[in-house]
Design brief:
By secondary structure, the protein is an alpha/beta fold. The protein contains 9 helices and 9 strands. About 40% of the residues lie in helices and about 15% in strands.
Length: about 230
């Protein structure tokens, strides 16, 4: 069952515009261009009526956590709005890989050799949309979180380089909930530069401004726009 935002369409648009202003202000503090930063509106759990005001004003990038929910919700939307970009920002189960590649333009949560192997099996499917991938890094080795440990990244990066047709464009992280995120954002940027990555999926509603200051190219914002989920 999908939820409807507690906010009206006008409130959603006001919140969205406020987020855009905050993005601009954060970028200006470090002399970054807005063209370097993609706002992914996290639409997970919300219904089409909540999302439509943003589609109608031209926003293109949306984020979902689950393949099945995204399939049920977005497949009909794509029939009418063909130029939208859908990002998978939640954990991808290997048995959902084939459909995920057909549905999403970008997957931000590559976190295991098993998943990499499943992507390789399906990467040349002519129905695929997905061409861009991020490796998810478990920055603090939190047991409850997915992601590659920092000390395993070198081997994983080598595995990735041996795959045919998988273009990994960057790194993704979610810092520990109860810690200052800035050191983690700075570290992800440092690691990325070491391995030649240029894109960083980091920063959510509570910390996207700090993420921008440390090089985020993709920020994932939901509750600041739609309100807190029930």
């Amino acid at each position: 069952m999908l939820n409807k935002s507690a906010y009206t369409s006008d409130q959603i648009l006001e919140n969205y515009n406020n987020v855009k202003k905050r993005i601009m202000a954060a970028a200006e503090t470090v002399n970054r261009s807005l063209s370097e930063i993609t706002l992914i509106v996290v639409s997970k759990t919300y219904d089409f009526d909540s999302i439509k005001p943003l589609i109608d004003i031209g926003h293109k990038h949306f984020g979902e956590n689950r393949v099945q929910e995204a399939d049920n919700k977005w497949a009909p939307i794509f029939d009418e709005y063909r130029d939208l970009q859908l990002h998978l920002i939640g954990h991808l189960q290997s048995n959902k890989t084939k459909r995920a590649l057909e549905l999403f333009d970008s997957i931000h949560t590559i976190d295991s050799q098993k998943l990499l192997n499943e992507i390789q099996k399906n990467i040349h499917n002519p129905n695929n949309k997905c061409r861009n991938f991020f490796i998810e890094i478990n920055m603090a080795n939190e047991e409850q979180k997915a992601g590659i440990a920092i000390d395993q990244l070198s081997n994983f990066h080598q595995l990735l380089s041996e795959q045919n047709g998988i273009k990994c464009e960057g790194l993704m992280c979610i810092p520990p909930f109860d810690e200052e995120p800035s050191p983690y954002f700075a570290l992800l940027n440092k690691i990325g530069r070491k391995y030649g990555f240029h894109n960083y999926s980091m920063g959510m509603s509570a910390d996207f401004e700090k993420a921008i200051q440390f090089g985020a190219t993709h920020i994932r914002v939901g509750s600041e726009i739609f309100g807190h989920r029930q």
